[in-house]
Amino acid sequence: MPSGPSTIGDFSVLPVSVPPLPSFPKNAVHYLYVRRNAPKIPTATDARSLFLTNVPVDSTEAHLRALFTSLVGAGRFESAAFEDERKDAHSQSQSPIDAAQPAHAARLLQAHGKKRKREDEEAERAREEAAARLPSTWTRPLRKSGGTAVVLLADEKSVEQVLKAIGKANKTKKYPIWGGDSLPQGKVPPLGSVWLKAHNRLSYPDKQALQASVDAFSALFARREQEAAEIAKRLRNEPDEDGFVTVTRGGRAAPASRNEAEEAKRKMLEKQDKKKEELTNFYRFQLRERKKEEQAELLKRFDDDRKKLEAMLVKRGKFVPEA
C-alpha cells in the first residue's frame, strides 16, 4: 500500500482500499479527506457531523455506512447527504405543480392562493406531484468526481472516535475496504454493463405510464391557469378606495392580460397594506390617547433630565472661573 501524509490542513486523510474488479483486476487506494463539519451557516447538528471530500463517484449512503461501521462499529452512523443531492433539493424547491403554470399565474397564486393546512390536502398535493413526475431512467446515480458529502453521526463522541480511527488506520496501514463485508448484498444496484442495460430498458417506459404522467402534468397546468384567471377576474371586480371599479379592455368578465393581472395584484396588495395600517388605529380616541401618552412621556423624561442637571450642579457647587 502506498504511504502519504495522514493530515492535510484541517483534513484527516482516510485511505480506502478498492478491491479488484473484472474491469480493473488490481488493488487500488482511494483517498477520502475528512474534517469536522463547519458550514458558513451553523446548524444544530454540526458538532456531530463530518465533512467528506473526494468521495468516490459510486458512493451511496450504504457504502458510507459500511465504511464508518468498519472504522468505529455499528450504531454510530445516522445518515449522509451528498453534494449533488443537496443542490438538487435546493433547485427542486419549485414543485411540479409550480412548474405546471405560467409565471404570472404562479405570482398570483402565491400572493392570493389559499394556504393548504389540512393533512389530507397535503397528501393530495404529494399524490399530484408524484403523478406529474416522469419515470426515472437510472437505477443508481453517479456522483461528481471529487464531490463532497456530510455524514451525520450519533453524537460528538462518535466524531472523535472516527477521527482517531482514521489516524490509527494510517499508522497500521490497515485501510478499510470500499464496499466491504458489512455492505448488505443486493442493497446497492451494481454498475457496469448491468447498470447501462437497465438504463437502456428504463429509457423506454411503458406508454400508458408515460401518457399518465403527461396527462397529469397537463391537467395541473390547465387547472392553475384557470385559477389564475379567476383570481385576476376577482381582483378586477373589487372596488378601489373610492368605491369605483376599473373596467379593463374586454369588460370585467373577460380574461385578464398579464400586465392587467399584475397591476391589479399590485393595487390589491397596496390596499391590503393600507387596511392593516388603518386597523392599528381604528378608533380616533385611541389615536388621541396614544398621542397624549407620548407627550406625557416626553415631559416626564424632560423633567427627569432637569432634576439630574440640578443635582449635578448642587454636588459640584458654584463654579467660579479664574480671572
TrEMBL record:
Cited CDD domains: dRRM_Rrp7p, RRP7_Rrp7p
Alphabetical list of InterPro entries matching this protein: RRM_Rrp7 (IPR040447), RRP7 (IPR040446), RRP7_C (IPR024326)
GO biological process, one term: ribosomal small subunit assembly
Region (Disordered): 82-139, 242-273
GO CC term, one of those recorded: CURI complex
Domain spans labelled Rrp7 RRM-like N-terminal: 10-198
Family statement: Belongs to the RRP7 family.
Top-rank taxon: Eukaryota
The protein, known as: Ribosomal RNA-processing protein 7
Compositionally biased intervals (Basic and acidic residues): 118-131, 259-273
Ribosomal RNA-processing protein 7 C-terminal domain: residues covered: 202-321
